[in-house]
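From the pipeline queue, job 12 of 40. The input is one protein chain; the requested action is below.

Action: predict structure.
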Amino acid sequence: MNVRAVTSHILFRVVGRPIVFAVPFALFFFIMNGERFSDLPWYYLAALIFSTYINFANLANARWIVPRLSSRSRAAQGKPLVLEIASFAVASLAASLAAALTLHLTIVPGMLGSPKDVLQLVTYSCLFVVLVMGVIYAVRFQREVVDRIRNEAERKGREEQELKTAAEIQQALLPPRSIAGATFTVAGASIPCRTIGGDFYDTFELPDGRLGFALGDVAGKGPPAAILAAMVQGIFASHVGAGAGPAETLDRVNKAVLRRAIESRFATLVYGLLSPDGTLVASNAGHNPTFLFRADGRLERLDKGGLMVGAFDFAVYEEERAALRPGDTLVLYSDGATDATSPTGEQFGEERFLAALSTAHRETPDDLVARLLKEIRVFADGEPPADDVTLLVVRFAEGAPSPGANRSTS
């Protein structure tokens, strides 16, 4: 049993506390008035009577008086504590006088024999009330601080565990990091700047053989952004495969998010459909441009679309078409990749990002994602990320049939 459990036990509060508190009382009175060491036990007996009376008075005060004072003064901030302390002080003084009267009528006749003796007793009583109250409330406040720190630590521990679980769920909602089909290879990764983040990516293999892929970035960070990202991802997934193209799908997602009326919350989103013959149809809702790296090293930007989803009910979305040939690579990313900051405050930037992608056509999508994340991490050099970093790389397979010669990028 620990010390706190012992001192909180009813037996100690009723019996042990007076025995302990009588010691300083006895020593004080002995030093002030004692002449022989053999008198010390008598001083201790007198002090024990004082501490017993005071202890029972304080226990009664705590049981019957303090709860009524607190309930009546709850509206006044700080007032209940002042009244509580005052009630204990009055109870202690009254108990001291009662103890003195008891001693005067029993083993210490003449204790209250003169006004000077009464004044001295009241002075000593006030002094000891202050000291005892100081000790009691110091211990009480120390316990409250310890309890508050422990409760805060437990709360943070629970929150960390909940966030860890939420992060595991969020990662589980993402598709496998690497996917290979008959006409495509896909790799992606999402690294939140906190435990959970507001970025997501997704891929869909449609019944007609087309590959659907999307990457989104919700405004904000942490749990609120993660919840909205899961909602947008769910809404988006429910509209994929309904026969609609990217522009129409984004329009439906925009209206669905707007119906939720989440103030000051929106998401940027890019969605593309890649057919087995290499035909790409894509639409961009306020997101970063999609980079198309041709197998021969040429770079193209795909950025046609409209406004972010969830912000404007008048948003209209366009589609962009491109003819992919075997080996062509699409790179989608969130702005956390280009906004990564070095210890000197310099941003990774689009120029570095494109330089890192210059050999994209010669690497597997999985290797490319891993290398990009490593370069961003090395550039940051331990600087905490300011935003989530999400990458998605889509490669039109080497063995896929080339699209017709009449197809061109529009």
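Job complete. Residues 194 and 222 are 6 Å apart (CA to CA).
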